[in-house]
Design a protein that fits this description.
By secondary structure, this protein is mainly α. It contains 7 helices and no strands. It has a domain of about 90 residues.
Length: about 200
């Protein structure tokens, strides 16, 4: 327990994480475009990604300690255990208190339970409910397909932008042009400095 409390205490403060109180995480989910990590604003740097992984790991451990039934869908989960997980996660990681109605904790918990159920179905430890039998084709998808996390794509884009800025060039790689002094002689009352005589 001491290792989990030390990781939770290190996760309680993330200086680069912005404060947000919007409930945007649950409001505009669309298939293939929504990512919890990006909505929580914890993508873009390796420090933020480590903090996100710590949060996800903490929620996973809380779900295991609460002994949630993994073979139930989200609607079948006991509400008393879910609310205990919300409160415990907010106490261990104060960053989660910024999100209204615990939407970030809810999404991470739903994601964990869904992935856990999928592993149980794949191993044969649980049977797929009849209502989801039509999804059996999804198990036959290409294993060599792209598995790059969207958060990693965001981080790589930020790193390339930073590298371009450090190189001193614009987006095309050209150095910025210096301004030329096109002013004439000094005019009394103006803010222009006179040209130096040569």
């Amino acid at each position: 327990m001491s290792s989990s409390s030390s990781s939770a205490s290190s996760a309680s403060s993330c200086p680069s994480a912005p404060s947000t109180s919007s409930s945007s995480g649950a409001s505009h989910k669309t298939a293939g475009k929504y990512t919890v990590q990006i909505e929580m604003r914890l993508a873009g740097t390796t420090k933020k990604e480590k903090f996100y992984n710590t949060i996800a790991d903490t929620i996973r451990r809380l779900a295991q300690q609460a002994d949630l039934p993994f073979n139930f869908t989200w609607k079948g989960q006991p509400l008393d255990k879910i609310s205990i997980i919300y409160k415990a996660a907010a106490e261990k990681i104060p960053y989660l208190q910024r999100f209204e109605n615990h939407w970030a904790t809810k999404d991470l918990l739903q994601q964990y339970l869904k992935n856990r159920r999928a592993k149980m179905y794949a191993k044969g430890e649980a049977t797929v409910p009849e209502q989801y039998e039509y999804l059996s084709n999804s198990a036959m998808r290409s294993e060599s397909g792209s598995r790059v996390k969207k958060a990693k794509v965001v981080r790589l884009e930020k790193e390339s932008q930073t590298a371009r800025k450090r190189a001193g060039g614009s987006a095309q790689g050209q150095p910025a042009r210096k301004k030329q002094n096109v002013g004439g002689d000094f005019v009394q009352g103006s803010s222009r400095a006179p040209n130096k005589p040569e």
